[in-house]
Write a structure and sequence with these properties.
Order of helices and strands: HEHEHEHEH
Structural class: alpha/beta
Oligomer: single chain
Strand order of the largest sheet: 1-2
Shape: globular
């Protein structure tokens, strides 16, 4: 999720180096053209809406690289049964963080 500088310079190259244990199966960015271009380069599905990608499934984990608060997207991914790696910040407030299933005891 999110195909900006961090995705293109750090995450995607690292995942590509470890194809023995990782397989990129989809990409998503609010800029649909950008997502489509990178998806075509990687040979994977592309999306411009996170929920559409989550609903389509076909993957075990999600790397969340979007700007701003990640709480709602992380919560939705966890509800779909995905493992999640999330860039900071997870949330902007303690109330938002408490609403996340990852913090419930």
């Amino acid at each position: 999720m999110g195909l900006g500088v961090a995705a293109q310079v750090v995450y995607l190259p690292l995942l590509a180096k470890r194809r023995d244990i990782f397989q990129v199966s989809a990409v998503c960015d609010l800029d649909g053209d950008h997502a489509e271009t990178l998806g075509r380069e990687l040979g994977v599905r592309s999306y411009d809406r996170a929920m559409a990608m989550l609903e389509a499934g076909g993957f075990d984990a999600l790397i969340v690289l979007t700007p701003g608060s990640h709480g709602p997207l992380v919560k939705a991914a966890l509800a779909c049964g995905c493992w999640v790696l999330c860039e900071k910040p997870l949330a902007y407030s303690r109330a938002e963080l408490r609403a996340s299933p990852a913090t419930r005891g």
